[in-house]
Write a structure and sequence with these properties.
Oligomer: single chain
Helix content: over 70%
Strand content: under 5%
Shape: globular
Distance between the termini: 45 Å
Strand order of the largest sheet: 1-2
Length: 223
């Protein structure tokens, strides 16, 4: 069962990364962008879900929590581009609770890691739990603004969509090209080539979020 989950996880991650880079390159808002974006969403969701299960079996708490974080981010990213309905609001509240559980998990393992060897946490120290925990807290802050506001700007929702799609791609790229560097040719590792796709995704994240942020505020609002 574990072998099947690993193969499925790798397959979903591979397709997710490839489709993610394609989405970056394709004109935003086009029909092709939307179709490949759906592929990216589905594969990243199942990559996160299967990764969470694999990490749970192998007792790697950070990877388990990060798998849940990927699922949470891509789900809320997709919902950010949908018009509000009663069902969507209920799902948003449910995901908000799930996000709170993730923060509780990150916080618990952070305090545990402060007084324990990193080997007991799958090789990760407290800083790793702190970083991803804070990112989740930020995402929850956005969600809270969305749930409490009667009207939110299209720009807010677009930024919410962009970084929640691109950050999981960054996580997946870093896990493959940096976390699994030993499986790549030594020459690529020594020359630092493997960091290029990871840095590219991060730069795209800041570029698109920054570009959207400085653009003139849209006159319409989602209700």
């Amino acid at each position: 069962m574990l072998t099947f989950l690993l193969i499925f996880h790798i397959a979903m991650g591979t397709i997710g990364i490839i489709s993610g880079f394609c989405v970056i390159a394709i004109k935003k808002g086009s029909a092709l962008h939307k179709r490949i974006g759906r592929v990216f969403f589905i594969t990243m969701f199942f990559m996160g879900l299967s990764g969470c299960l694999v990490a749970w079996v192998k007792h790697i708490p950070l990877s388990m929590l990060n798998g849940g974080l990927v699922c949470y981010l891509v789900l809320t990213a997709l919902m950010a581009m949908r018009r509000n309905t009663a069902a969507l609001i209920k799902l948003s509240k449910g995901l908000f609770v799930f996000g709170l559980l993730l923060v509780t998990g990150y916080s618990s393992y952070f305090y545990f890691a402060l007084g324990a060897s990193s080997t007991l946490n799958g090789g990760f120290g407290p800083s790793a739990f702190a970083v991803f925990g804070l990112i989740t807290v930020y995402a929850l802050g956005e969600d809270l603004c969305f749930l409490l506001s009667n009207r939110v700007s299209k720009r807010f929702m677009l930024i919410r969509h962009l970084w929640r799609m691109l950050f999981p791609l960054f996580m997946a790229s870093a896990a493959v090209f940096l976390g699994q560097a030993k499986h790549f040719p030594v020459l690529l590792v020594k020359n630092g080539v493997l960091i290029i796709p990871v840095a590219f995704v991060l730069l795209c994240l800041f570029y698109w979020v920054g570009k959207t942020w400085v653009q003139k505020r849209t006159s319409g609002a989602l209700s």
